[in-house]
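Hi again,

Forgot to attach this to my earlier email, sorry! This is the prediction with PXG bound. I've pasted everything inline since the attachment limit keeps bouncing my files.
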Amino acid sequence: MPDTLRPNSLDAFWMPFTPNRAFKADPRMVVRAEGVHYYTSDGRAILDATSGLWCCAAGHGRKRIVEAIQRAAAELDYATTFNLGHPSAFEFANRLGEITPDGIDRIFFTNSGSESADTALKIALAYHRARGKPGKYRLIGRERGYHGTNFGGISVGGIVRNRMTYGPMVAGVDHLPHTLDIARNAFSRGEPEHGGAEFADALERIVALHDASTIAAVIVEPVAGSTGVIVPPKGYLKRLRELCTRHDILLIFDEVITGFGRLGAPFAAQYFDVTPDLITMAKAITNAAVPMGAVACSREIYDTILANADTPIELFHGYTTSGHPLACAAGLAALDTYRDEKLFERAAELAPYWEDAIHALRDAPHVIDIRNLGLIGGIELEPRPGAATQRALEAFRKCFDAGVLVRVTGDIIAFSPPLIVEKAQIDRIVETVRAALRQIA
Ligand code: PXG
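C-alpha coordinates for the complex follow:
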Protein backbone atom coordinates (compact mmCIF):
# COMPACT_ATOMS: atom_id res chain seq x y z
CA MET A 1 0.00 0.00 0.00
CA PRO A 2 1.50 3.42 -0.89
CA ASP A 3 2.28 5.43 2.24
CA THR A 4 -0.04 8.25 1.23
CA LEU A 5 -2.98 5.86 1.37
CA ARG A 6 -2.06 4.20 4.63
CA PRO A 7 -3.72 5.78 7.65
CA ASN A 8 -1.31 6.50 10.51
CA SER A 9 -3.01 3.93 12.64
CA LEU A 10 -5.84 1.47 12.19
CA ASP A 11 -6.54 1.34 15.92
CA ALA A 12 -9.10 4.10 16.42
CA PHE A 13 -11.79 2.84 14.05
CA TRP A 14 -13.66 0.02 15.79
CA MET A 15 -14.85 -1.86 12.73
CA PRO A 16 -18.39 -3.30 12.70
CA PHE A 17 -18.97 -7.05 12.44
CA THR A 18 -15.27 -7.52 11.74
CA PRO A 19 -12.54 -9.54 13.40
CA ASN A 20 -10.68 -6.31 14.23
CA ARG A 21 -7.43 -7.94 15.31
CA ALA A 22 -7.15 -10.15 12.23
CA PHE A 23 -8.19 -7.36 9.86
CA LYS A 24 -5.78 -4.81 11.28
CA ALA A 25 -2.95 -7.31 11.03
CA ASP A 26 -3.71 -7.86 7.33
CA PRO A 27 -5.94 -5.03 6.06
CA ARG A 28 -7.79 -4.89 2.77
CA MET A 29 -8.43 -1.30 1.68
CA VAL A 30 -10.47 0.04 -1.19
CA VAL A 31 -10.07 3.63 -2.24
CA ARG A 32 -12.32 4.03 -5.28
CA ALA A 33 -15.26 2.37 -6.98
CA GLU A 34 -16.88 2.52 -10.36
CA GLY A 35 -19.47 0.29 -12.02
CA VAL A 36 -19.09 -3.26 -10.77
CA HIS A 37 -15.54 -2.72 -9.50
CA TYR A 38 -13.75 -1.57 -6.40
CA TYR A 39 -10.15 -0.44 -6.69
CA THR A 40 -7.72 -1.26 -3.91
CA SER A 41 -5.09 0.99 -2.44
CA ASP A 42 -2.50 -0.99 -4.38
CA GLY A 43 -4.33 -0.39 -7.64
CA ARG A 44 -6.10 -3.70 -8.20
CA ALA A 45 -9.65 -3.94 -9.59
CA ILE A 46 -11.98 -6.10 -7.51
CA LEU A 47 -15.19 -7.35 -9.09
CA ASP A 48 -17.92 -6.63 -6.54
CA ALA A 49 -20.14 -9.71 -6.38
CA THR A 50 -21.95 -8.33 -3.31
CA SER A 51 -23.11 -4.87 -4.45
CA GLY A 52 -21.18 -3.39 -1.54
CA LEU A 53 -23.24 -5.08 1.16
CA TRP A 54 -26.36 -5.95 -0.87
CA CYS A 55 -26.88 -2.24 -1.46
CA CYS A 56 -25.27 -0.69 -4.56
CA ALA A 57 -27.86 -2.14 -6.93
CA ALA A 58 -26.99 0.16 -9.83
CA GLY A 59 -23.27 -0.36 -9.33
CA HIS A 60 -20.80 2.16 -7.94
CA GLY A 61 -20.02 5.77 -8.61
CA ARG A 62 -23.18 6.52 -10.57
CA LYS A 63 -22.78 10.08 -11.90
CA ARG A 64 -26.45 10.94 -11.84
CA ILE A 65 -26.65 10.09 -8.15
CA VAL A 66 -23.38 11.80 -7.29
CA GLU A 67 -24.46 15.00 -9.02
CA ALA A 68 -27.87 14.96 -7.35
CA ILE A 69 -26.17 14.73 -3.97
CA GLN A 70 -23.79 17.56 -4.86
CA ARG A 71 -26.64 19.82 -5.95
CA ALA A 72 -28.69 19.04 -2.85
CA ALA A 73 -25.77 19.69 -0.52
CA ALA A 74 -25.17 23.09 -2.09
CA GLU A 75 -28.84 24.07 -1.99
CA LEU A 76 -30.22 22.80 1.33
CA ASP A 77 -27.67 21.04 3.47
CA TYR A 78 -30.10 20.06 6.19
CA ALA A 79 -33.59 20.72 7.38
CA THR A 80 -35.46 18.91 10.10
CA THR A 81 -38.67 17.16 9.12
CA PHE A 82 -40.06 17.65 12.63
CA ASN A 83 -42.80 20.15 12.04
CA LEU A 84 -41.00 21.64 9.01
CA GLY A 85 -40.97 20.45 5.43
CA HIS A 86 -38.70 20.46 2.43
CA PRO A 87 -39.93 19.42 -1.00
CA SER A 88 -37.62 16.50 -1.77
CA ALA A 89 -38.82 14.48 1.24
CA PHE A 90 -42.42 14.68 0.04
CA GLU A 91 -41.42 14.04 -3.54
CA PHE A 92 -39.34 11.02 -2.63
CA ALA A 93 -42.13 9.55 -0.47
CA ASN A 94 -44.52 9.95 -3.40
CA ARG A 95 -42.09 8.30 -5.78
CA LEU A 96 -41.48 5.39 -3.42
CA GLY A 97 -45.24 4.95 -3.13
CA GLU A 98 -45.39 4.50 -6.89
CA ILE A 99 -43.27 1.35 -6.78
CA THR A 100 -44.50 -0.20 -3.52
CA PRO A 101 -47.51 -2.55 -3.67
CA ASP A 102 -50.88 -0.82 -4.09
CA GLY A 103 -52.03 0.85 -0.90
CA ILE A 104 -48.71 0.37 0.92
CA ASP A 105 -47.66 3.92 0.26
CA ARG A 106 -47.38 5.90 3.48
CA ILE A 107 -43.68 6.37 4.02
CA PHE A 108 -41.76 6.93 7.27
CA PHE A 109 -38.09 7.82 6.74
CA THR A 110 -35.23 6.43 8.81
CA ASN A 111 -31.46 6.22 8.29
CA SER A 112 -30.79 2.49 8.15
CA GLY A 113 -32.32 -0.94 7.97
CA SER A 114 -31.99 -1.36 11.73
CA GLU A 115 -33.98 1.80 12.35
CA SER A 116 -36.53 0.70 9.77
CA ALA A 117 -37.07 -2.60 11.59
CA ASP A 118 -37.56 -0.92 14.95
CA THR A 119 -39.77 1.73 13.38
CA ALA A 120 -42.00 -0.90 11.75
CA LEU A 121 -42.39 -2.79 15.03
CA LYS A 122 -43.32 0.40 16.86
CA ILE A 123 -45.82 1.40 14.19
CA ALA A 124 -47.42 -2.05 14.47
CA LEU A 125 -47.85 -1.58 18.23
CA ALA A 126 -49.14 1.97 17.80
CA TYR A 127 -51.67 0.76 15.24
CA HIS A 128 -53.23 -1.81 17.53
CA ARG A 129 -53.33 0.67 20.38
CA ALA A 130 -55.02 3.20 18.11
CA ARG A 131 -57.66 0.57 17.29
CA GLY A 132 -58.34 0.05 20.95
CA LYS A 133 -56.44 -3.24 21.05
CA PRO A 134 -53.40 -2.45 23.23
CA GLY A 135 -53.39 -6.09 24.37
CA LYS A 136 -51.96 -7.04 20.97
CA TYR A 137 -48.32 -6.51 21.87
CA ARG A 138 -46.40 -9.66 20.99
CA LEU A 139 -43.94 -9.52 18.11
CA ILE A 140 -43.15 -12.68 16.19
CA GLY A 141 -39.84 -13.04 14.36
CA ARG A 142 -38.16 -16.08 12.93
CA GLU A 143 -35.12 -18.20 13.69
CA ARG A 144 -32.15 -17.05 11.59
CA GLY A 145 -33.90 -13.77 10.88
CA TYR A 146 -31.84 -10.59 10.62
CA HIS A 147 -33.49 -7.25 11.23
CA GLY A 148 -30.47 -5.17 12.08
CA THR A 149 -28.80 -4.53 15.38
CA ASN A 150 -31.10 -2.30 17.42
CA PHE A 151 -32.94 -3.79 20.38
CA GLY A 152 -36.22 -4.40 18.56
CA GLY A 153 -34.45 -5.92 15.61
CA ILE A 154 -32.24 -8.27 17.63
CA SER A 155 -35.24 -9.31 19.73
CA VAL A 156 -37.26 -10.50 16.73
CA GLY A 157 -34.08 -11.56 14.96
CA GLY A 158 -32.83 -15.08 15.27
CA ILE A 159 -29.04 -14.97 15.31
CA VAL A 160 -27.73 -16.17 18.63
CA ARG A 161 -24.46 -14.22 18.58
CA ASN A 162 -26.30 -10.98 17.90
CA ARG A 163 -28.53 -11.58 20.94
CA MET A 164 -26.79 -13.52 23.69
CA THR A 165 -24.44 -10.76 24.85
CA TYR A 166 -27.09 -8.10 25.24
CA GLY A 167 -29.18 -9.25 28.14
CA PRO A 168 -32.93 -9.31 28.24
CA MET A 169 -34.46 -8.71 24.86
CA VAL A 170 -37.69 -6.86 24.21
CA ALA A 171 -40.38 -8.75 26.11
CA GLY A 172 -43.18 -10.67 24.47
CA VAL A 173 -41.30 -11.95 21.44
CA ASP A 174 -41.62 -15.41 19.95
CA HIS A 175 -40.06 -16.98 16.87
CA LEU A 176 -41.23 -19.03 13.92
CA PRO A 177 -38.92 -21.83 12.78
CA HIS A 178 -36.56 -20.97 9.95
CA THR A 179 -37.29 -22.59 6.62
CA LEU A 180 -33.91 -23.99 5.64
CA ASP A 181 -34.30 -27.73 5.06
CA ILE A 182 -31.23 -29.01 3.27
CA ALA A 183 -32.18 -32.63 3.84
CA ARG A 184 -35.26 -32.22 1.64
CA ASN A 185 -34.44 -29.19 -0.48
CA ALA A 186 -30.71 -29.23 -1.28
CA PHE A 187 -29.78 -27.71 -4.65
CA SER A 188 -33.27 -26.36 -5.28
CA ARG A 189 -33.39 -23.95 -8.17
CA GLY A 190 -35.32 -20.96 -6.92
CA GLU A 191 -38.10 -21.63 -4.43
CA PRO A 192 -37.73 -25.04 -2.76
CA GLU A 193 -40.51 -27.60 -3.16
CA HIS A 194 -40.89 -28.87 0.40
CA GLY A 195 -42.13 -27.42 3.65
CA GLY A 196 -43.96 -24.22 2.66
CA ALA A 197 -47.27 -24.85 4.41
CA GLU A 198 -45.82 -26.66 7.39
CA PHE A 199 -43.25 -23.98 8.25
CA ALA A 200 -45.92 -21.28 7.97
CA ASP A 201 -48.38 -23.30 10.02
CA ALA A 202 -45.99 -23.01 12.93
CA LEU A 203 -47.69 -19.64 13.40
CA GLU A 204 -50.86 -21.52 14.33
CA ARG A 205 -48.99 -23.13 17.19
CA ILE A 206 -47.76 -19.76 18.42
CA VAL A 207 -51.32 -18.45 18.19
CA ALA A 208 -52.57 -21.49 20.09
CA LEU A 209 -49.97 -20.85 22.79
CA HIS A 210 -50.43 -17.10 23.25
CA ASP A 211 -53.80 -16.36 21.63
CA ALA A 212 -54.13 -14.03 18.66
CA SER A 213 -55.52 -11.30 20.90
CA THR A 214 -51.99 -10.82 22.26
CA ILE A 215 -50.10 -10.81 18.95
CA ALA A 216 -49.34 -7.59 17.09
CA ALA A 217 -47.16 -8.53 14.15
CA VAL A 218 -45.03 -11.08 12.35
CA ILE A 219 -41.80 -9.85 10.78
CA VAL A 220 -39.86 -11.89 8.21
CA GLU A 221 -37.38 -11.34 5.43
CA PRO A 222 -39.05 -12.66 2.26
CA VAL A 223 -35.65 -14.15 1.39
CA ALA A 224 -33.32 -14.27 4.38
CA GLY A 225 -30.01 -12.76 3.33
CA SER A 226 -27.58 -12.36 6.19
CA THR A 227 -27.90 -15.86 7.55
CA GLY A 228 -26.95 -17.37 4.26
CA VAL A 229 -29.63 -16.96 1.62
CA ILE A 230 -32.70 -18.86 2.75
CA VAL A 231 -35.26 -18.91 -0.04
CA PRO A 232 -38.85 -19.44 1.13
CA PRO A 233 -40.36 -22.79 0.13
CA LYS A 234 -43.23 -22.64 -2.36
CA GLY A 235 -46.43 -21.32 -0.83
CA TYR A 236 -44.81 -20.27 2.45
CA LEU A 237 -45.31 -16.52 2.25
CA LYS A 238 -48.85 -16.82 0.86
CA ARG A 239 -49.78 -19.10 3.73
CA LEU A 240 -48.17 -16.76 6.27
CA ARG A 241 -50.24 -13.91 4.80
CA GLU A 242 -53.44 -15.96 5.09
CA LEU A 243 -52.76 -16.84 8.70
CA CYS A 244 -51.90 -13.25 9.66
CA THR A 245 -55.09 -11.98 8.05
CA ARG A 246 -57.15 -14.69 9.73
CA HIS A 247 -55.77 -13.78 13.15
CA ASP A 248 -55.71 -9.99 12.74
CA ILE A 249 -51.91 -9.93 12.92
CA LEU A 250 -49.90 -7.43 10.88
CA LEU A 251 -47.37 -8.87 8.45
CA ILE A 252 -44.10 -6.98 8.06
CA PHE A 253 -41.76 -7.81 5.20
CA ASP A 254 -38.20 -6.76 5.91
CA GLU A 255 -37.13 -5.89 2.37
CA VAL A 256 -33.83 -4.23 3.25
CA ILE A 257 -32.13 -6.75 0.94
CA THR A 258 -34.97 -7.83 -1.36
CA GLY A 259 -36.18 -4.29 -2.14
CA PHE A 260 -35.25 -2.37 -5.27
CA GLY A 261 -35.07 -5.06 -7.87
CA ARG A 262 -32.96 -7.74 -6.25
CA LEU A 263 -35.54 -10.37 -7.28
CA GLY A 264 -36.44 -8.72 -10.57
CA ALA A 265 -39.46 -6.83 -9.22
CA PRO A 266 -39.46 -3.59 -7.22
CA PHE A 267 -40.09 -5.52 -4.00
CA ALA A 268 -40.33 -9.18 -3.03
CA ALA A 269 -43.96 -8.48 -2.19
CA GLN A 270 -44.66 -8.08 -5.90
CA TYR A 271 -42.37 -10.92 -6.89
CA PHE A 272 -44.23 -13.35 -4.63
CA ASP A 273 -47.58 -11.62 -5.13
CA VAL A 274 -48.03 -11.38 -1.37
CA THR A 275 -48.90 -7.99 0.11
CA PRO A 276 -47.72 -7.33 3.64
CA ASP A 277 -49.01 -4.49 5.82
CA LEU A 278 -45.61 -2.87 6.24
CA ILE A 279 -42.38 -3.02 4.26
CA THR A 280 -39.01 -2.01 5.66
CA MET A 281 -36.32 -0.88 3.27
CA ALA A 282 -32.84 0.71 3.28
CA LYS A 283 -29.58 -0.02 1.40
CA ALA A 284 -30.47 0.34 -2.31
CA ILE A 285 -33.09 2.99 -1.49
CA THR A 286 -30.30 5.48 -2.33
CA ASN A 287 -28.04 2.95 -4.06
CA ALA A 288 -26.31 3.28 -0.65
CA ALA A 289 -24.71 6.56 -1.70
CA VAL A 290 -26.22 8.25 1.37
CA PRO A 291 -27.45 6.29 4.40
CA MET A 292 -31.22 6.04 4.45
CA GLY A 293 -34.05 3.71 5.33
CA ALA A 294 -37.83 3.81 5.17
CA VAL A 295 -40.93 1.99 6.25
CA ALA A 296 -43.86 1.79 3.84
CA CYS A 297 -47.18 1.34 5.63
CA SER A 298 -50.68 0.57 4.45
CA ARG A 299 -53.09 3.48 4.30
CA GLU A 300 -55.21 1.62 6.82
CA ILE A 301 -52.38 1.78 9.36
CA TYR A 302 -51.57 5.42 8.68
CA ASP A 303 -55.22 6.54 8.67
CA THR A 304 -56.05 4.60 11.83
CA ILE A 305 -53.14 6.06 13.79
CA LEU A 306 -53.89 9.60 12.60
CA ALA A 307 -57.64 9.36 13.16
CA ASN A 308 -57.39 8.03 16.68
CA ALA A 309 -54.60 10.15 18.09
CA ASP A 310 -55.44 11.85 21.36
CA THR A 311 -52.58 14.35 21.03
CA PRO A 312 -51.65 16.61 18.08
CA ILE A 313 -48.57 14.51 17.34
CA GLU A 314 -49.92 11.15 16.24
CA LEU A 315 -46.76 9.04 16.48
CA PHE A 316 -44.01 9.75 18.99
CA HIS A 317 -41.15 8.58 16.85
CA GLY A 318 -38.58 9.99 14.42
CA TYR A 319 -34.92 10.76 13.79
CA THR A 320 -33.03 14.05 13.46
CA THR A 321 -32.10 13.08 9.92
CA SER A 322 -35.40 11.43 8.85
CA GLY A 323 -35.85 12.49 5.21
CA HIS A 324 -32.44 14.17 5.01
CA PRO A 325 -32.18 16.32 1.86
CA LEU A 326 -29.04 14.57 0.60
CA ALA A 327 -30.59 11.16 1.10
CA CYS A 328 -33.81 12.19 -0.65
CA ALA A 329 -31.83 13.58 -3.57
CA ALA A 330 -29.79 10.40 -3.82
CA GLY A 331 -32.95 8.31 -3.55
CA LEU A 332 -34.74 10.22 -6.30
CA ALA A 333 -31.72 9.86 -8.57
CA ALA A 334 -31.46 6.17 -7.73
CA LEU A 335 -35.12 5.62 -8.63
CA ASP A 336 -34.58 7.51 -11.91
CA THR A 337 -31.58 5.31 -12.64
CA TYR A 338 -33.45 2.09 -11.87
CA ARG A 339 -36.35 3.20 -14.07
CA ASP A 340 -34.42 4.61 -17.03
CA GLU A 341 -31.97 1.72 -17.18
CA LYS A 342 -34.77 -0.81 -16.53
CA LEU A 343 -32.61 -2.44 -13.89
CA PHE A 344 -35.37 -4.38 -12.15
CA GLU A 345 -36.34 -5.90 -15.50
CA ARG A 346 -32.69 -6.54 -16.22
CA ALA A 347 -32.38 -8.48 -12.96
CA ALA A 348 -35.37 -10.59 -13.96
CA GLU A 349 -33.86 -11.29 -17.38
CA LEU A 350 -30.47 -12.22 -15.92
CA ALA A 351 -31.86 -14.41 -13.13
CA PRO A 352 -32.01 -17.67 -15.18
CA TYR A 353 -28.43 -17.17 -16.37
CA TRP A 354 -27.34 -16.48 -12.81
CA GLU A 355 -29.16 -19.60 -11.61
CA ASP A 356 -27.47 -21.84 -14.19
CA ALA A 357 -24.10 -20.26 -13.49
CA ILE A 358 -24.04 -20.79 -9.75
CA HIS A 359 -25.64 -24.22 -9.87
CA ALA A 360 -22.73 -25.25 -12.10
CA LEU A 361 -20.71 -25.19 -8.85
CA ARG A 362 -22.62 -28.19 -7.55
CA ASP A 363 -19.66 -30.47 -8.20
CA ALA A 364 -17.06 -28.13 -6.73
CA PRO A 365 -15.30 -29.36 -3.55
CA HIS A 366 -17.05 -28.95 -0.15
CA VAL A 367 -20.38 -27.76 -1.61
CA ILE A 368 -23.45 -29.21 0.15
CA ASP A 369 -26.14 -26.84 -1.11
CA ILE A 370 -26.69 -24.05 -3.60
CA ARG A 371 -29.59 -21.63 -3.28
CA ASN A 372 -30.70 -18.79 -5.53
CA LEU A 373 -33.50 -16.39 -6.36
CA GLY A 374 -33.41 -13.32 -8.56
CA LEU A 375 -29.83 -12.03 -8.44
CA ILE A 376 -29.15 -13.60 -5.05
CA GLY A 377 -27.06 -16.71 -4.58
CA GLY A 378 -25.77 -18.77 -1.68
CA ILE A 379 -23.34 -21.66 -1.63
CA GLU A 380 -23.22 -23.68 1.55
CA LEU A 381 -20.02 -25.53 2.34
CA GLU A 382 -19.58 -28.51 4.58
CA PRO A 383 -17.95 -27.13 7.74
CA ARG A 384 -14.38 -28.28 8.28
CA PRO A 385 -14.50 -30.70 11.23
CA GLY A 386 -13.67 -28.79 14.40
CA ALA A 387 -13.26 -25.50 12.51
CA ALA A 388 -16.66 -24.27 11.41
CA THR A 389 -16.70 -21.12 9.22
CA GLN A 390 -12.99 -21.46 8.33
CA ARG A 391 -13.57 -22.86 4.85
CA ALA A 392 -15.83 -20.01 3.82
CA LEU A 393 -13.44 -17.47 5.30
CA GLU A 394 -10.54 -18.95 3.38
CA ALA A 395 -12.65 -18.98 0.21
CA PHE A 396 -13.43 -15.29 0.79
CA ARG A 397 -9.72 -14.45 1.06
CA LYS A 398 -8.78 -16.52 -2.00
CA CYS A 399 -11.52 -14.85 -4.04
CA PHE A 400 -10.43 -11.39 -2.92
CA ASP A 401 -6.83 -12.15 -3.82
CA ALA A 402 -8.08 -13.30 -7.22
CA GLY A 403 -10.00 -10.04 -7.65
CA VAL A 404 -13.58 -10.95 -6.69
CA LEU A 405 -15.40 -9.71 -3.59
CA VAL A 406 -17.90 -12.17 -2.12
CA ARG A 407 -19.60 -12.18 1.27
CA VAL A 408 -19.40 -15.02 3.75
CA THR A 409 -21.59 -15.83 6.68
CA GLY A 410 -20.97 -18.99 8.64
CA ASP A 411 -19.98 -21.60 6.07
CA ILE A 412 -22.02 -19.97 3.35
CA ILE A 413 -20.73 -17.84 0.49
CA ALA A 414 -23.37 -15.24 -0.44
CA PHE A 415 -23.67 -13.29 -3.68
CA SER A 416 -25.72 -10.27 -4.70
CA PRO A 417 -24.06 -8.80 -7.78
CA PRO A 418 -25.05 -5.33 -8.97
CA LEU A 419 -28.06 -5.43 -11.29
CA ILE A 420 -25.79 -4.05 -14.04
CA VAL A 421 -23.54 -7.13 -13.96
CA GLU A 422 -22.66 -8.64 -17.35
CA LYS A 423 -22.86 -12.35 -18.18
CA ALA A 424 -19.09 -12.55 -18.64
CA GLN A 425 -18.67 -11.10 -15.14
CA ILE A 426 -21.04 -13.70 -13.74
CA ASP A 427 -18.87 -16.36 -15.38
CA ARG A 428 -15.80 -14.82 -13.82
CA ILE A 429 -17.39 -14.81 -10.35
CA VAL A 430 -18.28 -18.48 -10.66
CA GLU A 431 -14.88 -19.54 -12.02
CA THR A 432 -13.08 -17.60 -9.30
CA VAL A 433 -15.14 -19.32 -6.62
CA ARG A 434 -14.53 -22.70 -8.23
CA ALA A 435 -10.79 -22.13 -8.24
CA ALA A 436 -10.88 -20.92 -4.62
CA LEU A 437 -12.79 -24.00 -3.48
CA ARG A 438 -10.29 -26.24 -5.24
CA GLN A 439 -7.43 -24.59 -3.37
CA ILE A 440 -8.78 -24.96 0.13
CA ALA A 441 -8.70 -28.09 2.23
N1 PXG B 1 -32.86 -6.02 7.76
C1 PXG B 1 -32.28 -6.83 6.86
C2 PXG B 1 -33.08 -7.86 6.18
C3 PXG B 1 -30.92 -6.66 6.57
O1 PXG B 1 -30.34 -7.48 5.69
C4 PXG B 1 -30.85 -4.87 8.16
C5 PXG B 1 -32.19 -5.06 8.40
C6 PXG B 1 -30.13 -3.79 8.90
O2 PXG B 1 -29.77 -2.76 8.06
P1 PXG B 1 -28.63 -1.71 8.52
O3 PXG B 1 -28.73 -0.66 7.46
O4 PXG B 1 -29.01 -1.21 9.86
O5 PXG B 1 -27.34 -2.46 8.51
C7 PXG B 1 -30.20 -5.67 7.23
C8 PXG B 1 -28.73 -5.45 6.98
C9 PXG B 1 -24.55 -9.57 5.33
C10 PXG B 1 -25.01 -8.30 5.93
O6 PXG B 1 -23.41 -9.87 5.34
C11 PXG B 1 -26.30 -7.90 5.75
C12 PXG B 1 -26.76 -6.75 6.36
C13 PXG B 1 -25.90 -5.97 7.11
C14 PXG B 1 -24.59 -6.37 7.27
C15 PXG B 1 -24.13 -7.54 6.69
O7 PXG B 1 -25.35 -10.33 4.78
N2 PXG B 1 -28.08 -6.43 6.21
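Residues 53-54, 112-114, 117, 146-148, 221, 225-226, 254, 256-257, 282, 407, 409, 414 surround PXG (CB under 6 Å). The chain has a mean pLDDT of 97.

That should be everything now.

G.
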